[in-house]
Design goal:
The structure is a homodimer.
Chain A lengths: L1 E2 L5 E3 L4 H22 L2 H8 L14 H17 L3 H16 L9 H5 L9 H4 L1 H19 L3 H16 L14 H12 L2 H13 L6 H5 L43 H18 L2 H14 L33 H18 L2 H15 L17 E3 L13 H10 L6 E4 L2 E4 L5 E6 L5 E8 L6 E8 L3 E8 L7 E5 L2 E2 L9 E8 L3 E7 L3 E6 L11 E4 L2 E6 L12 E2 L5 E6 L6 E10 L10 E2 L5 E9 L10 E3 L4
Parallel strand pairs in A: 5-9
Antiparallel strand pairs in A: 1-4, 2-6, 3-22, 4-5, 6-7, 7-8, 8-13, 9-12, 10-11, 10-13, 14-15, 15-16, 16-21, 16-22, 17-19, 18-19, 19-21
Helix pairs in contact in A: 1-3, 1-16, 2-4, 3-4, 3-7, 3-16, 7-8, 7-9, 9-10, 9-12, 10-12, 12-13, 12-14, 14-15
C-alpha cells in the first residue's frame, strides 16, 4: 500500500484550508524571517564563502532551514505565495552554494570544525541535518519539478554512502531522521544505494561494538564530552537508550529515550520493513507500538519528561509537566502513517488523527506565528507560545506537517482506495486498468461527522473503496446515491465498498459524533478520578477564561451531565464549543483552614474548547482532565 | 497556666491503657535490647572506661538512649515493669560513669574525637544529645525522686553554661532540643542560669555573625564538611534554613527546614515566652503557627519532604511521598502544648489531639515493636514498620510520648482547671485555697464522645472547670448531676463551668461524633477531588486488605453515602470501623487500552479503619484521601 502523494491531492476544507492559508501567509514568512535574523540562513552563505563571518547559533541549526524549505515546498503546491517564493529560491541557492567539493554540506562543520567531520556522530547531528536536507530536496522536486536541491541532496547522500556502510566506516546518526529521508530519496530517484544505506542505519543501530562509544575514545571530540550527558547513566557508564542505540532494533521492546529520535527511527524502520518485507523489523515495530500505547497522552503526545525530552515508563503521564514535544507528536504521525501502510489497520490512523488534531496542532497558534515546544495537558497559567526558540525544531516541523497534510488523507493498493482522513477536497489517481479516478470530499469534519464523497472514475469501473471508521465512532450509517447501504466494518476498521462505480456516484457517510467522557487507565495516577471530554477526533479542554467562577482547579463534571455543542464561527477562528453543567468550589470556603468538612459545591455552566486552540487568549489556567 | 504534671495523673482508659501497657511490656524492653545490640549502651561503657572498644554507630546515638531512659522513667510512674527496672538503673549508672571530670558527657566525642569537642556545633549534635540527657534526668527525678541522673545533667549543663553565652563563647545547637530541656531543668532545679542559657540559645539563633558559618573556616572540622550538605544552597552558599538559623526567630515567618528541629525550637521558644513574657517571641510563634497551618497533614504530620526531612512550601502535601516523620508529629505535640499554655486556646489542643491520635500514634505498631520513621498518607504497598533504624530517633520518641501522656490531659491556672484530653483516669491537684481536688474521667473516647467527669474537692468549693470542645465537634450537650446545663462555648474553644462544686458532683459531657468527610484546601494538589473520613479525633483510612474488589486506587466514596460505625473489640486490638457504600473500577475494563469512554463503576461495600492502625496486617495499599 502506498500513500497517494500530496501532489495528487487538493484541499478545500472549512477546518484545514484556513490553517494551510495561515501556514503559507503567516507561518512560513515568519519562520523565514526568524531563520534570517538568527543567522541560520547566513550560516550557509558564510559556508559558501559568499559573505564573511562566524557560524551563529547551535550546531544543528541547518536542519531548521532544511525543514522550512521542505514546508515551503509543499506549500507551493497547496497555497503558493509570491511573497516568499523568490526568497525560497534564494535560500535553496545559498544552501546549494554551501555544498563542498566532495558533496559535504553542513555549515557548522564547514565553518567551525572543518577537520573534525564525522567524528562525533553520536551528538553532532551531521547525519540528522543531512536527512532534513534530503527531505527538503525531495519535497522541492515533488512540488516544483526542479532538481537543483534534489541534486545537492544526492551528491551529499553519495558522499555519505561512500563513507559509511559495510566494508566502509561504521557510522550511525546520533539523532535519527536520515533513515526515512534516504527512503524518500531512494523512491524519488530510484537509486537503490540510498535504500541500502537506510537499511544499514536501521539494522546496525545498537549492535556491538557501539559506534558512539568508540567515538568517545577520541580526546579531541568535536562538541566536547559535555554534549554526551544524556548518553550516560548516573554511574557514568555509556548507555544508548537516549538515542535508542542500546539494543538492535529487533530486540527493542519498549519506547525509551528521546521521543523524537525514537519516532523518526521507528518511522524509518517501518519504511524499510515496507520495502524489504523484513518480518523481524515488522514484529519489533508492532511490539514497540504496543508499548507506545501505554505511554502516550490522549493528545497524541509522547515523551512525558523534559529530562530526556522523552519516554519514562508505562502509564507515567503527568499533565502539568507533560513535555509532549510538538516534534514528537509529528514524529508519531510519521510512524503511525507508515504502520498503516504496512498493516492496513485503522488503529494506526486513529493515533495519527489524534496527534494531528490535538498534540501536533496545539504546537502552533491560531495566528500561525506562535509555537509550543512542550504541550502540557494542564497549566497553572503562564504557558504561552513563543515566536521562536534557540533550538527551533518545532516551528518548521509543524509548518511542514501542515504543508504535507494531503499526503495523509488517501492511500492506494492496486485497485483498493483508502480514505483515511475526512478532509474536504479531492484526489486524483489512476487505477490498475489505467482508468483515472477522482474522488472528492465535502464535509464539516471535525465539527460534524457527515461526509459526502463523490466518486468520479473516468468511466464505469469496479474497485474497492475503503472508508475509515474512526475508533471514536460507535455508530455510523452510509448511503450510496441516496440509498441506505448495508455494511459492516471489517476487522481492520474499514468499511469496504466493493462495487461497480459510475461517474458521479455519491457516498454519504454519517459518523455519530457525540460528546464522550474519556477515562484513563487507573495506572495513570494523575488522572485518577478525572475524565476528559472528546468529540470526534477532537480532545477538549477547559480554560479559566471561560470558566471564571470559583477555584478553577476544582472544576468538576457532573455525573451524566449532557453537553450541548455550539458552533461559533467568530470564536477562536471558528470552533464548536461544548457547554454543560459542572460544579466548582470557592477557595473562600476554606478561609484560613486547610481542612474543612462541608464545603459547598456550586453548580455552574462550564464551557470547553478544543485542546488545539488553548492559550490563544492569554496564558491562564487550563485543564484537559477534570474532576 | 501550667500543665498538671504526669505524676499527678493516673490513666485508666479503654483506648490508652492497653497502649501504655504495651509500651511498658513490649516497647521499652524491645528498645533497650536494640540499644544494647547496636552498641548504643556499650558506647557509654566504653567512654566510661568500663570496657574496651571503639565507638559504634552514628555520632548522635547517645540521644536514643537518653530518650529511652526518659520514656522508661515516665513509665515507672504509669506502668512499672520489674523486667527492665534494674536494667534502667544500670543504664543510668553507665551513663553517669561516662561523664568526664569537667561534666562533659558524649560518648562519640569522648571516644572518637576527644580533642574536637564543641567545634562543629552545626552538625555534630553535642548540644542536642545534652538536651536529651537533661530531659532524661528530669523525668527520672520526677518519676522516682532519685537525683543521680539529674545531678549528671546539671553538671553537664553547668559546663555548657560556663562555656557558651554572653561574654563566653558563641554557640548554638545545630539540632535544637536543648532549649526546652534547659527550661525543664531550670523548673525542676530552680536554677535560673539554665533558663538564661535557654533564652540565649533561643534569642541568638540566626543572628549574625553566624556561629555555624564561622565553624566552617576550620579546615579540620569534626565530622567533615560533607555533613553540612543540607546547610548549603545549590550554589554552595551557606544558608541556615535547614536548622532554622537563617534569621533571628523573631524575624521568622515561615516554617522551614528540618521539621523536628523546627518543632523543638518553637516549643523551647514558647517555654521561654511563657517564662519571660517576651511578646516579640510570642508574636513570632503565632505567625509561625499560622504558617504551619498551611503546611500540616490532616494526620498532624509536618515536613512533607524526605530531601530535608522537612518543610517545603504552603500546601505542598503529597500523600504517597509524605515524609511526616514520627518525631516531627511528636515535636508538633510539644509545640502545640506550649502554645496552649501560652494562649489558653483550644485550637492548639485540636492540633495536639490530631497529631497524638494519628500522625504520632501511627509511628508504632499495635504490638509495640515496629516503628514508622515516615508516615505517608497513601501507599502502593510495601510500607512496613521496622523494629529499629540506623538513625533511631523515632522509636524512643514515641515511647516517651506515650509514657508522658498524663502531662497533656489537664492544665491549671490559679483556680481554673482545664480538661484538654478526654482520657479515662484521674488527676489530683490543689487549688489556691489549699483545697485538694480530684477529678476523674470515665469515657469510651475516642470511640464515643460521652465523658463522665466526677468532681471531688475535699470540701465544697468554687472554681472554674474548663472543658475543651474539640474543633471537630459541631454539637454538644452537658449535664451536671443529671440536669441539663445551659452553656455556650467561649471564644477560646472551652466550655467554662464556674460554680460551687461539691464532692461527688458529676458532669456529663456529650460530644456529637458523626462520621465527617473532610475536604482539603484546593491548593493541596494531591487531594483535589478527594475527601477523607474522620470521626472525632480519629482520621480514617482504607487498606486494600479490607477493600479487595476492583482497582484499589480507584476506590471512591459515593455522594452523601452514610457510614455505619461498628465497634469490633477483636479487630486491631479493638477499633471502631466505618462501613458504607463506595464504588470502584476494575482495571480489566481497560483491557489493553489507555483511554476508554464508558468504564462501569461498581458499587461496593467499603470499610475504613483508624489511620493509626494501618499496616498492622501486612503491607498492602492504603489511602487516606479517596476519590
Amino acid at each position: 500500500m502506498k500513500a497517494i502523494p500530496f501532489t495528487k491531492v487538493s484541499i478545500n476544507d472549512r477546518f484545514w484550508s484556513p490553517r494551510l492559508k495561515t501556514n503559507s501567509e503567516r507561518t512560513i514568512p515568519h519562520e523565514l524571517e526568524q531563520c534570517r535574523i538568527t543567522g541560520r540562513i547566513s550560516n550557509f552563505a558564510k559556508a559558501a564563502g559568499l559573505i564573511d563571518g562566524n557560524f551563529e547559533g547551535i550546531f544543528f541549526n541547518d536542519s531548521d532551514v532544511h525543514k522550512l524549505v521542505e514546508a515551503a515546498s509543499y506549500t507551493l503546491h497547496t497555497h503558493p505565495n509570491p511573497d516568499w517564493e523568490e526568497d525560497l529560491d534564494e535560500v535553496i541557492d545559498t544552501i546549494a552554494k554551501s555544498q563542498q567539493q566532495d558533496g559535504y554540506l553542513n555549515s557548522y562543520f564547514t565553518l567551525v570544525e572543518p577537520e573534525k567531520k564525522w567524528q562525533n556522530l553520536g551528538m553532532m547531528h551531521e547525519l540528522y541535518c543531512a536527512g532534513h536536507l534530503f527531505e527538503a530536496g525531495v519535497a522541492h522536486y515533488q512540488a516544483t519539478g526542479k532538481e537543483k536541491l534534489l541534486d545537492v541532496a544526492c551528491r551529499f547522500a553519495d558522499l555519505i554512502d561512500n563513507t559509511f556502510g559495510p566494508g566502509k566506516r561504521d557510522g550511525l546518526p546520533g539523532h535519527q531522521g536520515i533513515e526515512l529521508a534516504l527512503v524518500k530519496l531512494a523512491r524519488t530517484t530510484g537509486e537503490d544505494r540510498y535504500m541500502s544505506l537506510s537499511d544499514y542505519f536501521v539494522k546496525t543501530r545498537g549492535q556491538a561494538p557501539h559506534v558512539f562509544e568508540k567515538e568517545l575514545e577520541n580526546p579531541d571530540l568535536p562538541g566536547g564530552l559535555g554534549a554526551y550527558k544524556h548518553h550516560y547513566t548516573r554511574d557514568d557508564k555509556y548507555e544508548g537508550t537516549y538515542s535508542q542505540a542500546h539494543l538492535p532494533l529487533v530486540e527493542q521492546t519498549e519506547c525509551v529515550g528521546h521521543a523524537v529520535r525514537g519516532m523518526y527511527l521507528y518511522a524509518g524502520a517501518a519504511d524499510i520493513a515496507n520495502e524489504t518485507g523484513d518480518s523481524e523489523i515488522m514484529n519489533a515495530l508492532q511490539t514497540l507500538w504496543q508499548n507506545m500505547e501505554k505511554r502516550f497522552y490522549i493528545t497524541g503526545g509522547v515523551g512525558p519528561s523534559g529530562h530526556n525530552e522523552g519516554f519514562t515508563q508505562d502509564y507515567e503521564l503527568p499533565n502539568f509537566s507533560a513535555y509532549a514535544e510538538t516534534c514528537a507528536s509529528i514524529g508519531l504521525i510519521f510512524w503511525a502513517h507508515r504502520m498503516f501502510l504496512l498493516k492496513g489497520e485503522s488503529g494506526y490512523m486513529d493515533v495519527l488523527e489524534t496527534a494531528l488534531y490535538n498534540g501536533a496542532l496545539s504546537g502552533v497558534s491560531l495566528d500561525g506565528t506562535g509555537f509550543f515546544y512542550q504541550n502540557p495537558l494542564a497549566s497553572r497559567g503562564g504557558r504561552e507560545r513563543s515566536p521562536w526558540f534557540g533550538c527551533a525544531c518545532c516551528p518548521p516541523n509543524i509548518a511542514r506537517l501542515l504543508g504535507s497534510l494531503g499526503e495523509y488523507i488517501y492511500a492506494q493498493s492496486n485497485d483498493d482506495i483508502w480514505v483515511n482522513l475526512y478532509v474536504g477536497g479531492s484526489v486524483s489517481t489512476t487505477l490498475s486498468s489505467d482508468v483515472s479516478l477522482k474522488l472528492s470530499q465535502e464535509t464539516e469534519y471535525p465539527w460534524s461527522g457527515e461526509v459526502k464523497i463523490t466518486v468520479n472514475p473516468e468511466k464505469s469501473t469496479s474497485f474497492e473503496l475503503n472508508l475509515r471508521i474512526p475508533g471514536w465512532c460507535k455508530n455510523h450509517s452510509i448511503g450510496i446515491n441516496g440509498k441506505q447501504y448495508e455494511n459492516s466494518v471489517s476487522s481492520n476498521g474499514y468499511l469496504s465498498i466493493n462495487r461497480q462505480w459510475n461517474p458521479g456516484d455519491i457516498v454519504e457517510l454519517k459518523l455519530d459524533m457525540p460528546v464522550d467522557r474519556v477515562y484513563a487507565h487507573p495506572n495513570v495516577r494523575d488522572n485518577l478520578g478525572r475524565s476528559a471530554l472528546q468529540r470526534g477526533p477532537l480532545l477538549y479542554c477547559f480554560e479559566d477564561i471561560d470558566n471564571t467562577e470559583g477555584a478553577f482547579e476544582t472544576l468538576s463534571l457532573i455525573g451524566d451531565a449532557h453537553f450541548d455543542i455550539e458552533y461559533n464561527p467568530e470564536f477562536l477562528n471558528g470552533v464548536t464549543l461544548l457547554k454543560g453543567a459542572g460544579s466548582i468550589y470557592d477557595v473562600s470556603e476554606w478561609e484560613n483552614q486547610l481542612y474543612i468538612t462541608k464545603p459547598s459545591q456550586k453548580k455552574i455552566d462550564i464551557t470547553a474548547i478544543p485542546y488545539y486552540a488553548w492559550s490563544n487568549r492569554g496564558s491562564g489556567q487550563m485543564a484537559v482532565w477534570v474532576l
